[in-house]
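Sanity check. The docking grid for nicotinamide-adenine-dinucleotide depends on where the pocket ends up, so I'm generating a full predicted complex first rather than guessing from homology. Inputs follow.
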Amino acid sequence: MGVFDLLAKYDYGELHLCRDPASGLQAIVAIHDSRLGPALGGCRFIHYDSEEEAIVDALRLARGMTFKAAITGLPLGGGKSVIIRPRSEFDRSALFRAFGKFVGDLGGHYITAEDSGTSIEDMEVIRSVTPHVTGVKPERGGSGDPSPFTALGVRRGIEACVKFVLGRDSIEGLEVAVQGIGHVGYHLCKELNALGARLTVADVDPLKAARAEREFGAQVVALDGIFSTECDVLAPCALGSALNDTTISQLRCKIVAGAANNQLAEPRHGDDLMQRGILYAPDYAINAGGLINVATEIEGYDAEKSRAQVMRIYDTILEIADRAAKAMKPTYLIADTMAQERLARAVLRSSVPPS
Ligand code: NAD
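Predicted complex below; grid placement will be based on this.
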């Protein structure tokens, strides 16, 4: 597919490409929408089999960021960048310095952050070239690890779902099954355990599952056993596409609410969940805590301010559930509608001439 056809398919926008022969950098910055503010989104540094694959990844991810920022009420657009990981040897600092210059040349229209394959150290290198980067070290005014904030937001989203489905203000005594006890999954287990929930966990890494068993009294089950676990809430916190034709038919939960991105293998799986009477908390709405946290960094990091805003994910998820029930539509569609409404309101505000 041609580049402009791809831009049309993903409803774009801008696409910036950079090749720096000295460092070997081949990078893409995709800016999906900047009507709400500068486009913020992480920088992915992985191998790609083709240029098209890298471009599509950037386009798809940046589009998701537009919706995430909009539904969360952040004054940010949606962007994402990709650095194609070289197959041969490379100088990592030189590569990220060149990438920093690329980001700097965009003049703040795009703000970068950590993503798969990049680290806080890479963000520091970028910071030496441009201020348009978040996720630097806390001692340099950065917001540090976003995972505890993402987990806090997911916990608030779970509480909203519990309120909506079970009419309860507390999650004490409820059964929660967590798939993936990585950065977010671990902190989520910690939050839920502190509030008296009973946990069942699964992770491909047995040490991570064992840690949850040791620290939070979680019951460990096999990888595919997590989907058929009888529970109130299933929290997918591993990779994407956890909700698919195979897993959905096994579910024995009332709520699906977790941190993973792209949980629905296909949109129709969101319809399937609704038909089965399972409330699904749309991924980009419930997992926005990390984005809220890095966004706070732009105006001077304040952990308390960040935490207060993450707590409000409760209201967003409750509104989605309520509107979905009234409209008899799946929650993922209602979340898209709410994000689009916020974008449209912003456009309207900016088009009203000053009186
Ligand atoms: P992570 O890599 O630290 O954790 C993922 C965990 O899932 C790992 O422990 C891994 O062993 C486990 N895992 C992988 N495949 C599995 C499987 N089939 N069954 C069970 N466990 C499996 O990643 P993370 O930072 O905790 O992020 C988790 C998810 O949340 C990802 O989808 C990520 O995109 C999303 N997310 C993370 C953040 C954040 O702040 N880190 C923010 C928003 C969204």
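Relevant for the grid: The chain has two domains: 3-64+77-133, 147-327.
Also worth noting: The mean pLDDT is 95.
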